[in-house]
Specification:
single chain, 4-stranded mixed beta sheet, elongated, binds ligand EPZ, alpha/beta
């Protein structure tokens, strides 16, 4: 397994291009199953999770061609299998996103239960309950969700709690259902809105996506369309934090600044000078040490849980004491154990991490446990004195495109060590 070696202490300077959003690409790839003709996707990030999804769709019979620059042409007309096998789903929970489109378009789906992961139990009960309300017959046996439906029927759904992929699965199931579906307490994430925009371009009738209530009028069929995936706000936030933690000056380009509001406010509280253009964000620490900030994660437009671990790293070397509350997932503080091994002074009480900033972290061998925890360790390594080697970086390759190349463009001393 590859490792990343980082020699810290260099203030990052420069600008980088942000890739397409992983958490928009995955549901949109699943949604191509709904189409009756080929789809052309642009700005698809070259990530392991995208490759896993391509493998999954191909295993169902869809034809997928990779053009230069990660343009993907997907022709779902040759789909003959409606199964998402355990071997694939266990490597990527988001495979559950094929459930809604398979059920909506083909009336059947056998999808392995995704199971939990390092950050929590990650149940899919809200997905299943919503699909049953749309008229699906669902049984869970042998670790699989077996779903059948002659014809889904529109209904009014109120989600007990906000779920991003739950909202996405139900929206994809509803677009070909008979009649109107209303999803209340829907997730507001920009990736949900991007999926809805893609579905509308394929001919779906959806209103209210990006608000808490989504209205979907079922149609008879959807047709292929060209579509460009929205930029990855979490990748953008991670690289801005790399600039902040090293006291540098970083500009991220090809982003939507409005999707980063909560994050930019917290970076300003940490002492960063933030400037925004139409499709870029500039962060300048002017060589200053960051100030510790308090934050609590929340569904969009609140502070994103996917940047919580990265902010923990920033707080660990900031001046003062910072309190971070994780309200979305029940065990998303694995990274703090590794940060402590680098000298961070972080105490965990329940869903709260309180850190008292230290002057300098010290490089050390550390281990990645999940995608965003590994990003947190990269940031810590960039700021630490000495060298940090991060093991199990297959986690990071799931969600960050060429992270070491992008950081090296900013002056980081970072390299991949093949085993
Ligand atoms: C999506 O996961 C993202 N993944 C996650 O990003 C992100 O952290 C999360 O949303 C929250 O923003 C993708 O979009 C592929 P949820 P998802 O359903 O949809 C509970 C990353 O690092 N819940 O919004 O799985 C759940 O346990 C990943 O890129 C139920 O109880 O998250 C959690 O506590 C990590 N029952 C909360 O809701 C359900 O049926 C929010 O989960 C569904 C969810």
């Amino acid at each position: 397994m590859d490792r990343l070696e980082i020699t810290g202490g260099v203030p990052l300077e420069g600008e980088i291009l942000i890739s397409g959003a992983k958490n928009a690409a995955l549901p949109i790839l699943a949604a191509t199953l709904l189409s009756e003709s080929p789809v052309l996707l642009e700005n698809v990030p070259s990530l392991n999770d995208v490759m896993t999804t391509i493998k999954l769709l191909r295993s169902m019979g869809a034809e997928i061609t990779l053009h230069d620059g990660w343009k993907l042409e997907i022709d779902p007309r040759t789909t003959t299998e409606y199964v998402a096998p355990y071997e694939l789903v266990k490597t990527m929970r988001a495979s559950v996103l094929v459930l809604g489109p398979l059920l909506g378009r083909y009336g059947r789906a056998d999808v392995s239960l995704p199971g939990g992961c390092a950050i929590g139990a990650r149940p899919v009960n809200l997905h299943v309950a919503g699909l049953k309300s749309l008229g699906a017959e669902i049984s869970i046996e042998g670790g699989y969700i077996h779903a059948r439906a002659e014809q889904l029927r529109g209904t009014r759904l109120t989600l007990d709690s906000v779920t991003v992929t739950g909202t996405e699965n139900l929206m994809m199931a509803a677009v070909l259902a008979k009649g109107e579906t209303v999803i209340e307490n829907a997730a507001l994430e920009p990736e949900v809105l991007d999926l809805a925009t893609f579905l509308v371009q394929m001919g779906a009738k959806i209103e209210g996506a990006g608000t808490g209530t989504i209205h979907i009028q079922g149609v008879d069929n959807l047709q292929g369309t060209p579509y460009t995936i929205l930029p990855d706000r979490i990748e953008a936030g991670t690289h801005l934090l790399a600039g902040a933690i090293t006291g540098g000056h970083v500009r991220v380009k090809q982003v939507r600044p409005s999707n980063l509001d909560a994050v930019l406010r917290k970076l300003e509280q940490a002492g960063a000078r933030i400037e925004c253009g139409s499709n870029w964000v500039d962060l300048d620490m002017a060589g200053e040490r960051p100030r510790a900030v308090n934050l609590s994660t929340a569904p969009y437009p609140g502070f994103p849980t996917d940047l919580q671990a990265q902010f923990c790293a920033l707080n660990s070397i900031a001046s003062g004491t910072g309190k971070i509350v994780e309200t979305v997932f029940e065990s998303r503080f694995q990274h703090t154990l590794e940060l402590q091994r680098m000298g961070a002074n972080i105490g965990i009480r329940g869903n709260t991490a309180v850190s008292k900033g230290v002057d300098r972290l010290k490089g050390a061998p550390v281990m990645a446990t999940d995608l965003r925890a590994s990003a947190s360790l990269v940031l810590a390594g960039l700021a630490a004195a000495g060298t940090t080697v991060i093991e199990r970086i297959y986690h990071i390759d799931r969600g960050y495109e060429c992270i070491e190349e992008k950081l090296a463009q900013l002056g980081a001393r970072i390299r991949r060590l093949p085993i």
